[in-house]
Design brief:
The structure is a single chain. The chain is mostly helical. Helix content is 71%, strand content 0%. The chain is built from 8 helices and no strands. Helix 2 runs antiparallel to helix 3 and helix 2 crosses helix 7. The mean pLDDT is 95.
């Protein structure tokens, strides 16, 4: 039976596909760590109280990158080059989603609108990350090889999503509601398209590595297209709603340490 669990099991069982999976994930997390560190350094004076939370967000992302690299090292594997068509974070940036790297590389303070853009982008992408990690947690939380890593990263992603909700609601109450909704909608509609394209590219690479039949690859591709159709017709709305989270001040403390892998 073809299921998400079975596909992940195949990917995780093979060294070459596992190295590609972890390398893609580590690259994206490390990029997110750099972006958050730069945003924390450039946050406007009026929002300096946010800086420690943004720093914590970046530290978590860096930690996740180290975790994925440690998972490879545990199996005696080295990171592999990330195919450009599978680089989710870079494709988002190239499509104008979030804050441009050119802006972040300058030593000029950001504006409040820049922070709203950053939080809106993060609210959308952290929704995706939290859902992906919840899927992995559902099937692999007890796995002796990756279970601890999955549980740690999943918990962090839930914290990041809660933080985005809480901060965006604060900005909405301060009068930025219309700008937030416009930015969220634009980010969500672009993200679902990029996620579809990246998913198709990743599955194509995995199919070549694992020797999937044309029929199996076609079924998986059809599933990805069906998911995009659902999101385009209205599923994207889950990425733009705002509600006060149960986890309040989710990034109010220091980042937790990465688990050790023997």
């Amino acid at each position: 039976m073809l299921s998400a669990k079975n596909v992940f099991q195949e990917i995780l069982a093979d060294d070459e596909s596992f190295a590609l999976f972890c390398s893609i994930a580590a690259s994206g997390e490390s990029q997110g760590g750099w972006e958050n560190a730069r945003i924390a350094a450039l946050v406007p004076d009026s929002e300096r109280e946010m800086a420690p939370k943004i720093t914590r967000h970046g530290a978590d992302e860096d930690k996740h990158g180290r975790i994925f690299n440690a998972l490879m090292k545990k199996r005696g594997l080295d990171p592999v080059p990330v195919p450009p068509e599978t680089d989710y974070t870079m494709l988002l940036e190239k499509n104008g989603i979030g804050l441009a790297h050119e802006k972040l590389q300058r030593d000029e303070p950001l504006t409040v609108q820049d922070i709203v853009t950053y939080l809106s982008h993060s609210r959308v992408t952290e929704q995706r990350a939290a859902e992906q990690m919840e899927l992995l947690r559902k099937h692999f939380a007890g796995d002796p090889g990756i279970g601890r890593a999955v549980r740690q990263i999943s918990n962090d992603e839930d914290n990041h999503l809660a933080y985005c909700h809480e901060e965006l609601l604060r900005f909405a109450q301060a009068g930025h509601g219309p700008a937030i909704q416009r930015t969220l909608r634009a980010c969500a509609l672009a993200e679902i398209r990029i996620y579809r394209d990246v998913s198709l590219a990743v599955m194509a690479h995995m199919g070549r590595i694992l020797g999937w039949s044309r029929a199996k690859s076609a079924v998986l591709a059809a599933g990805i297209h069906a998911m995009y159709a659902y999101e385009r017709l209205g599923g994207w709305r889950r990425m733009v709603s705002l509600r006060m989270p149960e986890r309040r001040d989710a990034l109010g403390g220091p980042a937790s340490a990465a688990p050790e892998f023997a």
